[in-house]
Amino acid sequence: MKYKHRLRDMLSEKLIRIAWYLTNMNLPERRALSYVNFCIHTEVIYEDGTYRALLKFSRDFKELTGKKITVCVSTPICPLVRKGLVDNGLSEKAFSERVSEMARHADVGYHGHYYPEGTTTFDHMRRSDYNKDLVVKQITREMTWFRNIGISPKTYIAGCWFMMKEMVLELERCGIEVDASIRRGKGDTFGGVYLDISRVPQYGRPFILPPSKNIVEIQSIFGPVMAPAIMKGHLSRYMRSDIGSVQSFIFPLHDWDIPRYYRNIWANVRELQRHKDKIAWANVNEMRGMYLNGKIV
Questions:
Q1: CATH class for the region spanning 31-292
Q2: What span, in angstroms and rounded, lies between the C-alpha atoms of 182 and 18?
């Protein structure tokens, strides 16, 4: 009897979910555009398959939309990337050539992952063992690594969504202008919260990331790896707020998501391309400019 009740409840829940998606599969009517783009947490392009898939996606996206995705790269300064290079037999020079090739088709940003000094277990730094001097030093070294290959990242996204105020200030000092690490009402992977929900505007509304003076925060929402009908159901929830105001959203993905879910991701790009009366692709720096010019408030 208990099994029958459990089965009935499971079926009821699934039917409710299906009904919700069917009623939300059309994007809501709005009086202003919602601007969107991808920000890729780029960690494993030392793997040949991941690199080729991400490069193809960058090229195809640029050709279809006329815009560039942003690939935020973890450099060989990061201990875990350095280990990945060794494990995959790829030299740092070859890795830098991959990043430079990506820069021809995408905007290259910075993706920071931080580990205790001398780590062998690769347990990510968190608030309990946060070493601000080590993190600030790594940010400086990684941004220098980019400059040495002719790239000046303007966008940052945090590994494990982990943020601290010293990081923000050093990122700003190093030239970062946009961040996509904040998700209203959500913390980092370890349960820590950088900004209380009361200090974060509604999704779709950029803001200056404290304590910086110039870093514009554009919030990440979800990675569109699901089928288009389901993706539109998720996106509709965000688009229904402030229907008369221009919005901006970031779709976060990991680089390894691209080969794994390429068909769905590309189907979602093409689907959103059909809704130009509601959705517009924009480079991340263009979204920043709209906010600073007062178009997005």
A1: alpha beta
A2: 30
